[in-house]
Design goal:
This protein is mostly helical. The chain has helices spanning 2-10, 59-79, 97-106, and strands spanning 84-85, 91-92. Helix content is 37%, strand content 4%.
């Protein structure tokens, strides 16, 4: 249900819950939730039947969404293997994978 997807999306900032991480006005945090459900939605009817998960049973979905987002962040941090130069000579380096693993282990991640 749309209100449930909204609740899940609101929790995704928890994936960047590093001690110094924060969200503020203008921080640019943006998460989009969408569903591929309702495959028969094109059929027109005056009455629709809807099955949904009870809100009280959504905790595992919140956990899974945060963990998947955290994994995507980690993959993005270690995903760039080749250094590259940007405008004005700024050099951007990838974080070495072993260093990223050690850092996560150090902080219990």
């Amino acid at each position: 249900m749309p209100h449930q997807l909204k609740r899940i999306a609101r929790r995704l900032t928890m994936a960047s819950r590093a001690p110094a991480a924060c969200s503020g006005n203008g921080s640019g945090d943006l998460f989009i939730a969408f569903s591929t459900a309702n495959a028969v939605g094109g059929k027109r009817s005056d009455v629709e039947s809807v099955k949904m998960l009870r809100n009280s049973r959504m905790d595992p979905l919140f956990t899974a969404a945060v963990q998947a987002t955290e994994e995507a962040i980690v993959n993005a941090l270690g995903g760039g293997y080749e250094p590259w130069s940007e405008i004005n000579g700024y050099r951007v380096e990838a974080i070495p994978h072993d260093r990223l693993v050690r850092s996560h282990a150090k902080y219990g991640r």
